[in-house]
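Below is a filled-in request sheet from our internal design queue. Each sheet records the structural input a requester submitted and the sequence that came back. We keep these sheets so that new team members can see what a complete request looks like end to end.

REQUESTER: design group, bay 2
PRIORITY: normal
MODE: inverse folding
CHAIN LENGTH: 139
BACKBONE (tokenized):
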């Protein structure tokens, strides 16, 4: 079984965020090296692209997405109709954004053992549904 990776973990590395970059990069390297199995949603690729365009880095967005796609042992999960229907419930019942609801339903439908994120607001909303950890807290 694998863990689910939220978009912000990739953005820590892409934006070279102080302190967080090293921890998130080390976590992603462990996945690439086969020490961990992981997944993320195809929505992550959308979010990375949109965030980079909005932040003025549209020239680098394609390369950033390609670098995520190149991580070995990282499955990029496409949304299906079950996930989409469940996501709607989480938007309504848990007050999640549409993207966060897609992340949660992907993790739950694919039976992720943990949800890896640095988003404290999201953590407080989803912790009752799945174990939530920061990248450096993964085994």
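RETURNED SEQUENCE:
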């Amino acid at each position: 079984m694998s863990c689910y990776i939220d978009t912000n973990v990739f953005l820590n590395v892409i934006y070279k965020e102080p302190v967080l970059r090293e921890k998130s990069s080390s976590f992603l390297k462990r996945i690439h090296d086969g020490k961990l199995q992981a997944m993320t949603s195809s929505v992550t690729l959308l979010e990375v692209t949109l965030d980079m365009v909005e932040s003025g880095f549209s020239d680098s967005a394609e390369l950033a997405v390609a670098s995520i796609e190149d991580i070995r042992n990282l499955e990029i999960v496409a949304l299906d109709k079950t996930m989409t229907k469940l996501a709607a419930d989480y938007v309504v019942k848990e007050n999640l954004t549409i993207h966060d609801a897609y992340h949660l339903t992907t993790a739950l439908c694919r039976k992720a053992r943990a949800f890896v994120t640095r988003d404290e607001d999201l953590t407080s909303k989803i912790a009752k549904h799945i174990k939530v950890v920061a990248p450096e807290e993964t085994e």
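SHEET NOTES:
- Helices lie at 7-14, 20-32, 42-54, 58-69, 81-94, 98-109, 120-126.
- The chain has one domain: 3-137.
FILED BY: M.R.
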